[in-house]
Design brief:
This protein has two domains: 169 residues, D-Maltodextrin-Binding Protein, domain 2 (3-Layer(aba) Sandwich); 98 residues, Periplasmic binding protein-like II (D-Maltodextrin-Binding Protein, domain 2), CATH 3.40.190.10. The protein has 13 helices and ten strands. α6 links the parallel β6 and β7. α2 crosses α12 and α11 packs across α12. The protein is globular.
Amino acid sequence: MPKLNAAAMLLGLAFIGAAPSGVRAEAATKLAVSYSATADFAPAFIAKEEGIFSKHGLDVTLSNLATTALGPPALQSGSLQIASISPPLLLLANDGGMDLVAVAGVAALDAKEPNSALVTRPGFIATKAEDFIGKKIGRPGINSAIDILLKKWFLDHHVPLDRVTFAETPFPKMGDLLRAGQIDAAVELEPLLTRIVASGAGTKSIDFISEVNPHIVAAIYGSTREWAEAHRDAVHQFRAALDEAARFAKDHPDEASAIQRKYIGAAGRPAGVTPLMQPQDFDFWVKTMTQLKMLQQPVGDPTRLILD
């Protein structure tokens, strides 16, 4: 049997130390994931900063999209594997010929713990839908969940949509635009909602979303069906990492708040992970979008919209 020289022995020992017997080291799965500038995405921020994604075998790059409407085309092009989108955007994308599925939950809007509201500029007070006739309202991207909920609220209160001006406005800019009087109102989410009110840039007005429906799944992580079905392990690892990050936020609120500030410029109590959408959660959106005449094709079985 030939003798091993010292260099070969050291190299062998290095490999033994790097990979325990019977275990083959595997490269982490690379994921490009988008988020929006709200506290709802804090679990993703925490999972990235605390190494939780890495622990679950994922190499995740996070990017902030100016509007969630950019998510579906980014998924289609492959520049994102998982995108922060709304259920309406998923339905619209599929109505237009794409094949997207929900892969993880982000946020639900619940009347028991409201985290959103219409905020009005200084000098303008509103108490009902009719007060916004002739006014300009800032809201995130067209056909976003908030955009659709706002339009449904006006229609439910018999205010024609052409009597109100809707302006596409990123969340971080809403406070400045309110203060300057360039918009009369805005739909803001926490933690920026509290910061705007505290700064005097706006006054909290109406929790219109709770009036529309007391519980709504408004944000999800989506992917193409082709990618998700081919990477089920990565999807499950992604969900597990978000769950662990939510537990970290609960146990370490100060650290979680600091991480959130790093990503969206505002501290606050980070949101927990919302369970994956259920088929019935899509029913509300299908009915609402049908009311607004936004869908051209039948949606079909809603269970197919969710990766199990």
